[in-house]
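FIELD: query
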Amino acid sequence: MLGLKHGINTIEDHDPEWSRAFLEERARIDAAIGTVARGIEHYGSTAVDELKAKPILDILVGVAPLEEWISCKHPLETLGYDYADNAGVPGHHIFGRGRDRSERTHLVHVDLVFAASRIRRASRQTSSAKSGGETRPSFCRARGTETDHNRKRA
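FIELD: result
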C-alpha cells in the first residue's frame, strides 16, 4: 500500500501494485498537463522490481524550458497535489499528495527534461536496476535497500 505519514520513514518490500499505480497516475497527470510535459517517468526505488522502498511514488515530469514548470502548478493542484515551495532543491519543483494532508503517497518532481546529468543518471540506474544490470547492487547500496539476493550478485 502506498503512503507514509509525515515524519515517519519505513522501507517496505516491493509491491507490484506500485507499477500499476504509476501508470494510472501518469495518465491523470498527462491528461491534466498535456503537451507541457515532455516526459512523465516513474523513477526511484518504487520503480525497481524486487527492491525495497519507501512506499511513495516518485514521478518525474520533464519540461523545457524550465520556466514551463509554472504551467504545471494549477493542473497538478486540481489533481490534489500541493506545491512544496520550500523543498530546498533549486530549479526543482516538487508537488506532493496523499489520501489526506497527514501523509504522502505521490511526489511529482518537475524539472528540466533530460538536461541535468543527475536525471539521466537516475534514469539509467533505475533502468539498469529494473533489468538486473551491473548498477543494481550499487543502486541498492546507495538507497540502503540491499537485499540478500542483491548482496549475492554484488
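FIELD: remark
The two ends are 29 Å apart (CA to CA).
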